[in-house]
Amino acid sequence: MAAPLPPTPVLVEFLGVHKAFGDNVVYENLDLTVMRGETLTIIGGSGQGKSVCLKLMIGLLRADAGVVRVGGEDLSTLDAAGLSRVRRRVAYVFQGGALFDSMNVLDNIGYAMREHTKMDDAAIETRARECLEMVAMPTDMLTMMPANLSGGQRKRVALARSIAIKPEVILYDEPTTGLDPRNITRIGDMIMKLQRELEVTSVVVTHDMPTARKVSNRVAMLYERRFPFVGTVDEIWNSSQPEVRDFVHGTLRRVGGPAAAGTEVRHGA
Q: Of 28, 69, 190, 206, which has fewest CB within 10 angstroms of its CB?
């Protein structure tokens, strides 16, 4: 197995990043740091480029200019082997779960173990059971197919798959989209549990402010191609910046969240 990423305090760093898709400029001179061990949540309106951040962090996309570093390594300088080495330490939980429909739960969770380790079938099944238990799923679901799972179950299987090879970083792309309130709460609890028990660094992309408030150490708001605000939950809640206040409190009023009810803000991490 690859060596852990170097123990630098700054784990992920964007410096002057530019990114465009044709005439659509997504980022201009974008800066961001993610500290080792924290949960950083990226918020912002639709089409602002939140998910693009995650894809840049794992090398699925390349910056047009500027630097993206993970564990001190400039991703633009890495060849295929170098990117593979970084990706073995960084798990990506896709928005829809991205389970393989032709594989059962066991094979979905075991996929990365078969690709990146020399574990035998028995060891893979043992680890898959451990991962399911960690995300509060019964192990008798190992033989089930994704088509027979609910939306919340698919998300939790995707979480189990993401932790199977013990990553140092987990990237979550809209982990609560399409879920009912009960499962949204459950996924938020899972994110906090995995960060605490596995001591991972987490980056969460979401438009769901109650989830951001619950899981985050820090929040970064993406707006007009940059991050005009990065700070703690309390700081973003009390920000006087118009675009920040409009997004945070407007979003919560629309969903009947704690801003509408006047609930006290608590820093949950």
A: 28
